Amino acid sequence: MGLRRTSWVQLYALCRRAPLSTAPAAREQPAAGPEAEPVCGPAETARPPVPAVDFGNTQEAYRSRRSWELARSLLVLSLCASPALLARHEQLLHLARKLLGQRLFNTLMKMTFYGQFVAGEDQESIRPLIQRNKAFGVGSILDYGVEEDLTPEEAERTEMESCSSALERDGRGVSKREKQFQAHRAFGDLRDGVTRARTYFCASEAKCDSHMETFLRCIEASGEARGSWEGLTGTRVEAQGWHPQLQFSDVLTKWRRFFHHVAAEQGKAGLAAVDTKLEVAALQESVVKMGIASRAEIEDWFTAETLGESGTLDLLDWCSLIDSRTELSRHLVVPNMQTGRLEPLLSQFTEEEERQMTRMLQRMGVLAKKASQAGVRLMVDAEQTYFQPAISRLTLETQRRFNVERPLVFNTFQCYLRDAYDNVTLDVELARREGWCFGAKLVRGAYMAQERARALEVGYEDPINPTYEATSAVYHRCLDYVLEELKHNARAAVMVASHNEGTVRFTLRRMEELGLHPADRQVYFGQLLGMCDQISFPLGQAGFPVYKYVPYGPVMEVLPYLSRRALENSGVMKGAQRERQLLWQELKRRLCTGSLFHQPA
Ligand SMILES: Cc1cc2nc3c(=O)[nH]c(=O)nc-3n(C[C@H](O)[C@H](O)[C@H](O)COP(=O)(O)OP(=O)(O)OC[C@H]3O[C@@H](n4cnc5c(N)ncnc54)[C@H](O)[C@@H]3O)c2cc1C
């Protein structure tokens, strides 16, 4: 097994030379045709005033829904609210399938949970729902929601194997990774306690290729379904492969921590990362002292050309120096703050691992290229904290390459993380400096229970904000920062992916204050299918770009997804109770006004 050294620059050169199936051009262009033209930027014609949005007007909110659909929503959401049912839902589903047989069970599911949260079995059958939502101003983000049918043991084994590097597995490399970034058998089944779409297990390159094919079909379907709208689709980096994601995340985190460590030494602890500027002379001392580079090397790193004349350096300068001046395998040597020495994390990547990483970047490139051709924006989902630094980093590389004229690729930021504000602001600042278009989806975060349990069990600091209120405050702070950016930069865009009415109201108020008009299509809203129609539809009817995440797939294959929807509606979501109230209110209204047989027109 040969060992190799690769820099990001070389890696990207490689990706460009050896695409998987679609040859990406050196500078990626948006799709041809008027519909695919950049839609951000103030519209030139006079714009209608922004209508007020009333989230309490149930008649308007449910205009697109028949009464039996409202009754089904009420039934399903009420069942989800029962802790006793939820605790036993898997056994109950199993029993129902045994008693009813597969066909009747499928029918029952379609009349209830599946009908509520899933659009249909395939691209053909979901069309009517997509068209109807569109007629009421709500777009679709297609998500083929099939999960591999692995037992928890199989899922665990696959994940344990794929998350350790070859050198660790064959005993030639001793892992110095922090606990957070080591694979743990108890948390090998990534689906445990998770409340969102599908989970991918990358057991082989062939598996990753087949995941990519799935995403390509989704992009195609989104392109066909969008009509004159801006198409959106979701994707997951972890489905594209590259096994040592944990290792890479560890390395990125440690280099970042080193920057903060030096900042603290210079008396700059506690500042937001984007505002922290290190004195270069003192930083050079620390770098030399720790043996990261020799004095001669370090002087070559910090030139007026790379840093300007300020004599200070921030985290972005630091990361870009690390990228361009060091080779990737040297990233595997990380500063140990306790001993004040550099330590090899693992000697190097194997050739095979490098190939895997290259192919992962290529797959992302193929998807982005396809999305660009189809006039569809690509939303990269965020995952657990121990994968997320690597995912973000790979997404960033794809953004640099494809967000040339408009924000084609969106990264996702989870605001339940303590470092969310740093993550968002640094990326905004990086996009400004490098001149690419910033695109972000802001979410609160779906893995809270799993993250907390893992941190407690494994013994590291809980990465999640201590309270729900703290998470909401961070969400609004990040959103505010991004909206300010949008005001000054017509080529940036954000999706407010939340079911929280307060957050949506906050966004509308700030948009008004900042003069961000919905016709500029810089601010998107996103909710999941079957959840919080009372938010999506009033927004859509008022002219705001709003999209539902629309999963589809055969009944048995989306069952794990349905389980998680049920769990999410049980209590984590603050809006679930309000939704039930509004549904009930509308059903009563229709009953009293004789409009029970309402037909959506
Ligand atoms: C279109 C769309 C795309 C999404 N994509 C992703 C994605 O890529 N990655 C991802 O992780 N999630 C994703 N999600 C899910 C999202 O992160 C949330 O789980 C979900 O939307 C609930 O948050 P909310 O703002 O809608 O509702 P709310 O009810 O306001 O918030 C609930 C959320 O608050 C947080 N929270 C609750 N209690 C506490 C507490 N005690 N302490 C700290 N925080 C707490 C949790 O994040 C919880 O999910 C997506 C959601 C949507 C609608």
Automatic annotation (TrEMBL):
Q: Which GO terms describe its molecular function?
A: FAD binding; proline dehydrogenase activity
Q: What name appears for this protein in its UniProt entry?
A: Proline dehydrogenase
Query: What is its subcellular localisation?
Result: Mitochondrion matrix
| Stretch list, region Disordered | 24-52
Listed GO CC annotations: mitochondrial matrix
Keyword Mitochondrion in annotation: yes
Its biological purpose is as follows:
Converts proline to delta-1-pyrroline-5-carboxylate.
Quote the InterPro entries the UniProt record gives: FAD-linked_oxidoreductase-like, Proline_DH_dom, Proline_oxidase
Cofactors needed by this protein, per the record, are: FAD
The reaction(s) annotated as catalysed by this protein in its Swiss-Prot or TrEMBL entry are: L-proline + a quinone = (S)-1-pyrroline-5-carboxylate + a quinol + H(+)
